[in-house]
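Researcher: I'm comparing several assemblies side by side, and this is the next one on my list. It has 720 residues spread over two chains. Same procedure as the others: predict the full complex and return the structure.
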Amino acid sequence: MPERLSRLQVTAGLFVLALLVLPFADLTLAGHDPRGVLWRMVQGFLAPDFTAVEHIGRALVLTVMFAVAGVAAGGVAGLIMAPFYDHPWLRAFCIALRSVHELFWALLLLQVLGVSALTGVLAIALPYAGIFAKVFAEHLEEADQRPSRALPRGTDGLSRFLYARAPLALAPMRIYALYRLECGLRSSAVLGFIGLPTLGFQLDSFFRQGEYDAASAIMILYVALIASIRLWMRWRLVPVWILAAVVVLTTLQSPPMGQGALWRFLSEDIVPAPLRDGWDGAALAEWLGHILSAEALPGLIATLICAQIALVLTGAVAFFSFGLIVPRVSGRFGAVAGHFMLVVLRSFPEYMLAYLFVQVFGPSMLPAILALSLHNGAIIGHLLGRQAEALCPELRADAPRGVTLWAWELMPRLYGSFLALCLYRWEIILRETAVMGLLGVMTLGFYIDSAMAELRLDRAIILLIIAGGLTAAIDSMSRAIRRRLGTGALRRMPQETLLGERA
Amino acid sequence: MLLDRQSLGYGAAPVLTGVSFALAPGERVALLGCSGAGKTTLLGALYDALLAEGNRVALVPQEQGLVPQLSVLRNALMGRLDDHGALYNLTNLVRPRAKDRAGVGEVLSTLGLSPQMDRTVEGLSGGQKQRVALARALWRGGDVLLGDEPVSALDETQGSEILNHIAARFDRVVLALHDVDQALGFATRVVGLKDGRVVMDAAPAEIARARIEALYA
């Protein structure tokens, strides 16, 4: 890669790549009677039915409880690891933790712990611990170092950390933790799709019974829950929420697991099949070759194709939507409507949107791409829109309004930021694309899910390692491009601004 | 001898060359010189050399190094973190012990900061912050105090009072100062830096005013 890359080069490169892979993407309409399903869904969504309040309430409460417990556990673990993040082994461990998607963690944990509260909590806590460790380490690194230098030389490490390092990073850490809780609510909801008793589970059962009106009610409440997060999650109330989560989750009934499930998992299930009766190099090579050629490679290619197209469409959605929330561009009412649209789109996790689209279009790359680009595009659009709003008071007095302002003043100023945000979400899009396989799209997740379903956990582990490696590779690629774009200030994206707060 | 014909600074181009420096008991040294002359560099080198000799050194860095989110009391307590173990410091952070609180309270009252004891540093004025950094050094105590413009944000009267207080509390003191009259009133020895060298090292009475003005020319 050359030393510097221009914005045009990066944009064109990503765009051309997406065009090149487009002919190989499976975009067929595989659904049975898509128009009819869509019509019934729209009808249901326009007339939400809240009468199934008991089911809805339980699903919502458990969604919040799993999110609180998972994020709290991940946050504490991340906080403990953050000061030592410089250590290469710990860093590698954290990368491994966070490059495996929550749903994949849950699928693995289900084998050992069954459909239990611990499965749900750990599925969120494990990847989040890796993310928290990285971000908290960055917060510590970016905080003022001078107070630490002013301490007496002989001060022990713990005192140095507690007096002169942690207090300085606390404010950004708090804001980030709140943002992570919002993510946790999405993760928690999605865990329901693979059997945990959260919102996804309830949504799935409503859909299976064609109760679109009840599904509509639960989705409206879910958006309201996420939009009001700052009202019900106060720092003083954190201990109360954690206590509530512990009480609710420990009293959760779950089907018992057979004795020794963990030991069997470690000593037998995940050991490659050809090695279970002793070392056999030739059989292992053949076994591995088969997985790589018949499952990993097609899954990898489909994942990359799907993610590439989704990335470019994400950019398009963000590019055209961010102006919608700027009153000087879209008018006061237009901005309110724009905010509403972006809030709804970013409240629903990609996976849940994709689930909805699969109901209509059937399982091809089409629903996955649509869901990924709408959700991620709405997030980037929201962040850019907020930056644009902050720019507006600084514009000259005779600056234009409307689309002219968007095109002549806002877009040129924010293009670098836009590109950096897209690159930053590249890794996230890839992670999510792999997971879309659980819905029947032929990405890596599809092969992982089938291997798990056939109880071939040894295969599933190999595929999970490949999926994790792919995510880590895209992450480092994205970082390399961002560095060459000279957007150093955007090394870590201001995710904090998602909640409308600034550090 | 703390420094013996040393070159000080970072990387290839030293800020100061051929510096020799000794500090006799009871000496109060004022460092003079225009900004960029190397006062901070010299203080840094003296800090390392004094620690290597086994002295207890209190430090007032130019940028203060306070933790804005913590209270004045806790910032002052940081001066003695190395005297205690991590457990003592941790519990003291959560709730400072009565005797530490009383001790710091005395220091703060001499600095006129008693009312601000439990306020966080971020809400204080520039002069108040500087006095918190001084409180941390005074609470630390010891053989030597090194200060980099420690009273620059205070008015003349208050600054001189605090300098007298420092002179009474520490056996040896080295301060970088920019107010020449204040420096001459405080110091038993004046060291002038110019063009990367020590160009003057004498008692205040022996120095002609014109030589000091030449430092800033």
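Model: For your comparison table: Chain A has two domains: 9-36+287-503, 48-260.
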